[in-house]
Design goal:
This protein has seven helices and no strands. The chain has helices at about 1-10, 55-70, 70-80, 85-90, 105, 115-130, 130-145.
Length: about 160
Amino acid sequence: MALLRLRTSALARPTGALRGFASQVPKTVEDAPTYPLVYGRCEETVMSPYKGGPVYLWLRSSILWLRRVPGRHWIRWIERNWDYQKMCLVGVPEFHIDPTKNRWRYYVDTSYYGGMLDKSHEDWYRYILMYPALAYFFHCTWCRIKDNDKDNFLAKWRVPADEV
C-alpha cells in the first residue's frame, strides 16, 4: 500500500516537462526477419500495429473480447429467435436414428383433418390427374427437343450413304 501511495504522489506533482512527440524518426528493427516480410522502409512507431506493439495488442484483445463476450450472445440470440425451421416444427418429435421409432411419420394422414372434400381432392390429383399431367409434361419436353433439333445432334458426324 505504501508503494501505491508513493506512486500516486509522484504522479500528482510532475518534476519536469514531459515530451509528447518524437524529435527523430524511430529506428528500424533489423534484428531478425519479421513475417510477413515488408519491402521498403517501414518504421515501427507507436501507431503501427507491429507484432507485440500496443496497437497490435489492443486490436487483438478487442477482437477477442468482441468474439467472446457480446458475439457469443448475438449468436445465441440468432439461433434461438431466427431459426424458422425450429419454430415451424414446435411439438413435432425429432427423427430417431432407429427407423422403427420413425414410423409415426408414415401413419400421419394430413388430409384427414381437412374432411371428406380434402381427401377427395387429394385422391383426384394423386390417382386421376397425375397421368394426364405427366403426359402433357413429356409431350412439351418432346416438342421442345424437336423444335431445337436436339434429337439430331449427331448429324454433323453422319456419313452420307453414297460415300460409304
